[in-house]
Specification:
Largest sheet of chain A: 3 strands, mixed
Shape of chain B: globular
Number of strands of chain A: 6
Number of strands of chain B: 8
CATH superfamily of chain B: P-loop containing nucleotide triphosphate hydrolases
Largest interface: A-B, 34 and 31 residues
Strand order of the largest sheet of chain A: 2-1-6
Strand content of chain B: 15-25%
Order of helices and strands of chain B: EHEHEHEHEEHHEHHEH
Helix content of chain B: 25-40%
CATH architecture of chain B: 3-Layer(aba) Sandwich
CATH topology of chain B: Rossmann fold
Structural class of chain A: alpha+beta
CATH class of chain B: Alpha Beta
Number of helices of chain A: 2
Radius of gyration of chain B: 17 Å
Helix content of chain A: 25-40%
CATH class of one domain in chain A: Alpha Beta
Oligomer: heterodimer
Order of helices and strands of chain A: HEHEEEEE
Distance between the termini of chain A: 36 Å
Shape of chain A: elongated
């Protein structure tokens, strides 16, 4: 249910960027989302279609790219992609790992028409 | 054409969460975010912890509820300052709500605020509320697979208390499985087995919380 608050934030970010750049239409919003995030992406698009009506971003497609979880082992310095349900170093079996990527959630860019 | 934006989607909440943290630090107050399902025993555990901590710390409570104020009345009866946060249907608490509610407390005369989050294992995990640390409760009747099903909740918590531990045998609850999966997603997590009804394990949990509070207050 918190997807609505998140969708409002995405719309606000797009509207603000559009106003700053003299954009007449936002066609696509590119979003990066870490694998750790529990957001339902389909749900965000549904909400967006409704709340963007009458705005510069009406009809825009949200392109969400999932970023895998990447960690570095504090014991042996191994670095790579980790399954979120099994956080353990595949090289030395240590469970002491530092998260390098996987909790991101940001609007990267907009595909737009300009004046 | 393409416009680069690079803007955090959760920034509206993160900025306020940082502001809440700063305000609490300026008053030497430690905020504890208590999370768990409806019926996990959040209110009764908070009450048990208040009993054990109130001689040492001045405590306040924010009671998050979708509707009603049964829990706030229970805490109020203990003579503890409590503010009810009625989210009117929303599934989580945002930092903005905490920021507004802090005005209801006399922060100069508080050391600790417990926030009882909305009963839900999904949404509250995504929102920082300016807390010093998170305590997640998982009660035995909920089942031993919940850490695997709701990883973000347990990955972002600093402690996990398996509550209603006295019921373990009735439910065939595999506490080792919970411990394994919790450490798998969060190697640093502290794990406790408690029963807020008969007091089992509460001394250990209270001791750990007390150390965390002292660390937070000393740092500010």
């Amino acid at each position: 249910m918190h997807e609505l608050a998140i969708t409002e934030s995405i719309l606000n970010i797009a509207k603000k960027a559009a106003a700053e750049h003299g954009v007449t239409r936002v066609k696509e919003i590119r979003i990066k989302l870490g694998e750790y995030s529990g957001i339902m992406t389909q749900c965000v698009q549904y909400y967006f279609d409704v709340i963007s009506r009458g705005t510069v971003a009406e009809g825009a497609v949200l392109k969400m790219e999932r970023l895998p979880i990447i960690m570095r082992c504090n014991q042996c310095s191994w670095e790579g992609v980790i399954d979120k349900h099994h956080i353990q170093c595949p090289a030395c079996s240590s469970v002491s790992l530092k998260l390098l990527q996987g909790r991101e959630f940001y609007v990267e860019s907009l595909e737009v028409d300009q004046e | 054409m393409e416009i680069k934006v690079m803007h955090q989607v959760m920034e509206w909440n993160e900025d306020v969460s940082d502001a809440v943290k700063a305000e609490l630090a300026s008053h030497n107050v430690c905020l504890i975010n208590v999370l768990g399902s409806p019926g996990a025993g959040k209110t009764s555990t908070i009450i048990s912890l208040i009993d054990r901590l109130r001689d040492k710390y001045r405590i306040g409570v924010i009671e998050g509820d979708i509707a009603g104020q049964i829990d706030a009345d229970t805490i109020h009866a203990l003579g503890i300052p409590v503010v009810q946060l009625d989210t009117d249907g929303a599934c989580h608490i945002e930092a903005m709500s905490i920021q507004l509610l802090l005005k209801e407390f006399d922060l100069a005369n508080l050391d600790v605020i417990f926030v009882e989050n909305i009963g839900n294992l999904v949404c509250p995990a995504e929102f920082n509320i300016g807390e010093s640390f998170r305590l997640a409760l998982l009660s035995i009747p909920e089942g031993d697979d919940k850490v695997e099903k709701y990883p973000l909740m347990f990955a972002t918590s600093h402690a996990l208390a398996m509550n209603k531990y006295d019921l373990k045998e009735y439910f065939g609850f595999d506490d080792e499985r919970v411990e394994r999966s919790a450490r798998g997603i969060n190697p640093e997590i502290q794990i406790f087995r408690v029963s807020s009804r008969d007091g089992l394990g509460l001394d250990e949990l209270t001791g750990w919380i007390s150390r965390r509070i002292d660390d937070t207050i000393a740092k500010s």
